[in-house]
Amino acid sequence: MSLSAAEVNKIAWLARLAIDGDKAEAYARDLSQILGFVEQLGSVDTSQVPPMAHPLDEAQRLRPDTATEADQRSLFQAHAPLVEAGLYLVPKVIE
Amino acid sequence: MHHKTIAELATGLERKEFSSLELTRACLERITRLDTRLNCFVTVTEETALAQAQAADERIARGAASALTGVPIAQKDIFCTKGVRTSCGSRMLDNFISPYDASVVERFNAAGAVMLGKLNMDEFAMGSSNETSFYGPVKNPWNTSTVPGGSSGGSAASIAARLTPGATGTDTGGSIRQPAAFCGITGIKPTYGRVSRWGMIAFASSLDQAGPMARTAEDCAIMLQAMAGFDERDSTCVDRPVPDYRAALGNSLEGLRIGLPTEFFGEGLDPAIASLIQDAVDEYKRLGATVKEISLPNMHLSAPAYYVVAPAECSSNLARFDGVRFGHRCENPADLADLYTRSRGEGFGAEVKRRILIGTYALSAGYYDAYYLKAQKIRRLISEDFRRAFEEVDVIMGPTAPSVAFEFGAKSADPIAMYLSDIYTIAVNLAGLPGMSVPVGFSNGLPVGMQIIGSYFSEDRLLNVAHRYQQATDWHTRAPAGIAD
């Protein structure tokens, strides 16, 4: 398995992650190496093996559908880079 | 005072031989004097530590002390601490003051422990050498040109240097056990679900587990007692009674069945380490244990499976860092996409980016079955290997790491070489089992750790097995010269 710099840039876009243009080749090399390492998994027949989602095969607990959290908006927004009137501000998305 | 264990400190506090304030001041003084050489602490919380110490002294005077009241500890900087920077070793969270305490932190506070500060770590716990930290690497107190291990490197090094008697760690693929081995201390990764993950910044949610690190198994028992237990805020935390870990420490090891997996002693293991593990196993024979060779045939698949599962879950968990709600935000974003990509690009370091990219690729359309699903199936095979082994033996022993602490830079250019330094610890996380590391000797002046693996929820047994060894040997009492004399 070998990834090109162009493929790395595509994956980086999917991850919304900026990587420096001159680093794409280096990432492509590292990622290809890691994917090559992981390829060993393909050597084992697992057609009859159920995947393991939880080490103890425990199911997720359910709880009554009632509100348990108090409103802490101002506390949490105190850590935000940019807020106004209780809203998080981002660059304009609609012209 | 700095050579005393948590158990000894608790006794001294109870008998009023010294106050928590005196003890805390002594620790803070050592941190101020020595940590410039080691870089263990990202943040020292002197003011709150002294306030907590004073409150602890009052609690002790009232006769309401627990085993940890007034005892100083430090928190890995992955645990959210209210009002205190929680950086996770990343530029992304360099400015993040947590608005709440993690469950683990709440529990230490309730026990009356004193928090000295927040400990350095690999960025988002992704690394095996502490070299990925935004705050620069922690140095190994045994030899400052070598790494302390990772990701809980600050925790392990600060304990070895006697800056703190105990610290928290987290272990996703070996991050408690491998640094414990490299720094010559004791650490335990509990069963998945034993300790709440609430408020512990997520890396790979199906593998992450918090645990204690200290100089002795007895101290780990005292700390784990405070940490373990059900928490409804963590949906994977297991609702099951917590045994009295300290009560089990003295149990006899007569008849203990030890399994040595062939796969742990093959190619790639430093022969000096193999020989020290054998010495430790011989000590166990003298303590009444029987030893048997076993096999974990799918062991070789654990690192490849891990490097699908962990990055996949990491890419998903780290999607929350978007430059909008908290953490780093880039200057003058041109549009929303630029805000996301540049904030993340600037906030994350190279190893975190590598893992986000691998994980995103493994989870992208058309690849899920070939990577993540396949790895989850392999994970079942690995845990089946352990299940079969535990039908025949009580504990499994082997090396914690294939080498002693390596030099800075030795593996940083080769991700696979770095990943393989966790080759013996990763399978335990994939299976969700408890595992610990105890010091069993030295090679070239650097500590060697032995890993002890148990069946689910056998932390009491592991601590007992480690404690009896520490009663019979003194490796765990050795301190690095020039730093912790």
Features:
heterodimer, A: 95 residues, mainly alpha, two-stranded antiparallel sheet, 3 helices, 2 strands, flat, B: 485 residues, alpha/beta, Amidase signature (AS) enzymes, 8-stranded mixed sheet, 15 helices
Which structural class do you get from the secondary structure elements of chain B? alpha/beta
Average per-residue pLDDT of chain A, rounded, comes to 91
Unreliable parts of chain A: none
Shape summary of chain A: flat
Oligomeric state:
heterodimer
What would you give as the CATH superfamily of the domain at 6-256 in chain B?
Amidase signature (AS) domain
**Which spans of chain B have pLDDT < 50 for at least 5 consecutive residues?**
none
Give helix and strand order of chain A, one letter per element, not per position: HHHEE
Rg of chain A over CA atoms, rounded to whole Å, is 22 Å
Distance between the termini of chain A: 42 Å
What is the overall shape of chain B? globular
Tell me roughly what share of residues is in helical segments of chain B: 25-40%
Largest interface: A-B, 51 and 70 residues
Structural class of chain A: mainly alpha
- At the first level of CATH, what is the class of the domain at 6-256 in chain B? Alpha Beta
Number of strands of chain A: 2
Please name the CATH architecture of the domain at 6-256 in chain B.
Alpha-Beta Complex
What is the arithmetic mean of pLDDT of chain B? 97
Give, in spatial order, the strands making up the sheet with the most strands of chain A: 1-2
